[in-house]
Amino acid sequence: xxxxxxxxxxxxxxxxxxxxxxxxxxxxxxxxxxxxxxxxxxxxxxxxxxxxxxxxxxxxxxxxxxxxxxxxxxxxxxxxxxxxxxxxxxxxxxxxxxxxxxxxxxxxxxxxxxxxxxxxxxxxxxxxxxxxxxxxxxxxxxxxxxxxxxxxxxxxxxxxxxxxxxxxxxxxxxxxxxxxxxxxxxxxxxxxxxxxxxxxxxxxxxxxxxxxxxxxxxxxxxxxxxxxxxxxxxxxxxxxxxxxxxxxxxxxxxxxxxxxxxxxxx
Length: 266
Hints:
Largest sheet: 6 strands, antiparallel
Low-confidence stretches: none
Shape: elongated
Structural class: alpha+beta
Mean pLDDT: 96
CATH class of the largest domain: Alpha Beta
CATH topology of the largest domain: Rossmann fold
C-alpha cells in the first residue's frame, strides 16, 4: 500500500534520465517543460491523462500512441477487456498519430496476435505490452527515415471500449455460460468477476463452460466439481474467493464450505 516507481521510472533513473511527472498537462509550465526537451516525437503508452492539443504538435513527428487494439475496433479506455468480453479471436497493437479525438488519429503501423483460449486481461496485456514495445521501435525508425506514413482509419468497424464499470463485473447468471466465462477472463486479474452466495460476496477467478442445464445460479456439487446453471449451458467453477479470504481451488473451497441442496449464486 505504498507508492512505488513504475518500471519505466526505475529504468530511467538507473541511466540518470530525468523523469517529469506532472499531475496535469494543461498548465502552461507543464507544456513549457515538455517543449524545452526538444523531442523528435512524444510517445504515449497507457497514459491516464488527456494530452492537450498544444503538446500534440511539439515533436517533429508529433505525438504517437501505442494502442492495444486493431483500430478502429476498440477505441477507448479498456480495449483488452472489451476484446475478451466480445469473444474476439484476435487483437493487436496499433501505432497511431494522435489527434484531439479519442483514438481517432491516422495509423502508422499495426501488428495482430491471436487471443488464446486461456488468455485473460493480465496475460493479454503482457503479450501486447511486449509487442507494442517492439513495434514502436520499428515504427519510429521508419518514420524518421521517411519510409512510413500514417493512413486514416476506416470509417467501418468502429467500436468503443468504454471504461469498465464495477456494476458490470457482477455475474448475471441468466446470461449464457459462454459470456460468463469470457467475463471471468476479462476481469482477471482486476477487478474480478463476482457474485453472492447466501448474501456473501464471492469472486469467481476461473471457470469454464460445460454441457448441461439448470436454473440460473443454481449450484450443483458433484464430488469436487461445482457446477452452476446459466441462461444457456452451465459454468464449472475452478477457483473462487470469499470476502477477506485467499483464492482457493474449488476442491479446497468445498472442503471448508458445505453447500446445501438448493444453494444458489445470485
